[in-house]
Amino acid sequence: MNEEQFSTRELDRIIEMAWEDRTPFDSIRFQFDITEKEVITLMRRNMKPSSFKMWRKRVQGRSTKHARLRSDEVGRFKCSRQRSISMNKLSKRRR
């Protein structure tokens, strides 16, 4: 994977999706054609080391991040703030 293949907007969205607990890696792969391993590499390169370690600890083995571990009861999740996110920058969110 070459990060240069993604625009800043796409990188922001990939990172945002990776942070969301209920967005499986399969969704990121479907939308951006990158594997879980590539997402991890991207996160490592774009986050502070302490933030990356915290994120990895949180998502490892999490059933909601791995579609094959999900129960059938977990449906499509849409964040309540999703509509108000502009340009994939949470800091620009208006309330």
Automatic annotation (TrEMBL):
Classification via Pfam families: DUF2805 (PF10985)
NCBIfam families xrefs: TIGR03643 family protein (TIGR03643)
Protein name listed in UniProt: TIGR03643 family protein
